[in-house]
Amino acid sequence: xxxxxxxxxxxxxxxxxxxxxxxxxVVVIDRQPAPALxxxxxxxxxxxxxxxxxxxxxxxxxxIPQWLWQRDAPMAFHPQPDWHQxxxxxxxLVECLPSRAERNTKATLALALYSLRMLQALRAETGIxxxxxxxxxxxxxTDTRALxxxxxAAETLKRAGIAVQVKxxxxxxxxxxxxxxxxxxxxxxxxxxxxxxxxxxxxxSALAALAARLGVQFRFNTSVEFIDARGGEVASVAVRNDDGxxxxxxxxxxxxxxxxYSSPVLRAIGIGVPVYPAKGYSxxxxxxxxxxxxxxxxxxxxxxxxxxxxxxxLRVAGTASLEGYNTEIDPARCEAIVRRTFxxxxxxxxxxxxxxxxxxxxxxxxxxxxxGRTKMRNLFLNTGHGxxxxxxxxxxxxxxxxxxxxxxxxxEFPFLSTxxxx
Length: 422
Ligand SMILES: Cc1cc2nc3c(=O)[nH]c(=O)nc-3n(C[C@H](O)[C@H](O)[C@H](O)COP(=O)(O)OP(=O)(O)OC[C@H]3O[C@@H](n4cnc5c(N)ncnc54)[C@H](O)[C@@H]3O)c2cc1C
Known about the structure:
The chain is of the alpha/beta class. It has a domain at 61-83 and 132-196 and 276-363: D-Amino Acid Oxidase, subunit A, domain 2 (D-Amino Acid Oxidase, Chain A, domain 2, 2-Layer Sandwich), CATH 3.30.9. Helix content is 32%, strand content 25%. It has 11 helices and 20 strands. Strands 4, 5, 6, 7, 14, 15, 16, 17 and 18 form a 9-stranded mixed sheet that branches. It has a 6-stranded mixed sheet with strand order 9-2-1-13-20-19, with helices on one face. Helix 1 (10-21) packs parallel to helix 8 and helix 4 (98-126) crosses helix 11. The protein is globular. 51% of the residues are buried. Residues 418-422 have low confidence and may be disordered. Flavin-adenine dinucleotide binds at residues 7-12, 29-32, 36-40, 43-46, 48, 223-224, 257-259, 261, 280-282, 306, 317, 359, 361-362, 383, 385-391.
């Protein structure tokens, strides 16, 4: 079959790779000049099965009133005159119910574990390089009560067979010596040795090059204008080339992997997906000899920040702001990340050199992505990966390719149609 994949972020490119491996002819369309230049560009870098618990959980519900008044709160809501935003927020509150949060965590865990296996297999097969580290993630706490709650919550991970080791403050420093100067602040941590990290942008670019060698055609600088759907199926995709000319791209099947922009494109043909942009920020610090930055990937539970050492850079990412499709950088948010980073790691490079970035997570209220077939026979989705698009990319791409090929993915996950009914 000829498959047209819309979007060359980490999700679109992994979809294209697994579709090509399944024997399909694949063309990928993206408005950017290269892969992974939007949300997949400078994310937190964590491949974190241990992050399966969604933002929508009872703990978040308790903290929302305090965050409403905090300028640099990890989560912010800026009301827009857009009922999709309000509906998303209401659905998010529903997903905070304990039973929903538990169900969403289990489904995410299943897909994340499968995804990690697929990433490891891909690495073994192709030798793909992306500043990857397989040294686990240390989730550290500065508050003893929060640590105790986390130890309790980690039971779900343990039941799924994921190793979680409780670490004292001294053990945290032993695992990550860069904590030395801030030892007194650390209450302890949870270490998940099977987690990984790596540069999602480098991974996606390298995988796109490998996919091109398999025959996948990439059409960059090409903007998707609309999907031409008639008679219950997609007839073509209308695109605009860089030189301003219009064109139609036709295939036997179509995959929408447009990240946050999937919703408006799909809405125009009567398909509603609960995907709304959750804006996040990252800072990237170039490291020089003599700098003392964390080597291990870390998770700062108090500030909801993640740290990854990517080659000769330190990446720190976090925050979620619901404010529509605004991609302007709010310096106050980035400066808050810089302050926290250097409060903990005073010798982690030069703060004034930190590069600021923002990206729109394609977030669903449950944090479960929409993967599978739509009500249109030849239209498939792989979108809505929210906080975990890098973690879930290989498993989502492999599952999508199996569904398109008429097979059932080997993972307990509410693939599409079930999900859209929620
Ligand atoms: C601050 C931050 C930190 C994060 N940290 C992590 C982490 O540590 N671990 C993790 O697993 N996940 C993390 N994520 C989430 C992860 O980055 C996303 O889930 C993932 O990048 C989404 O990938 P995607 O391919 O769906 O979307 P995108 O990367 O946005 O790809 C969509 C593509 O569609 C293209 N496109 C859109 N509209 C059009 C159009 N009309 N025409 C043509 N092309 C179009 C875009 O150019 C883009 O290339 C983080 C996200 C943020 C913002």
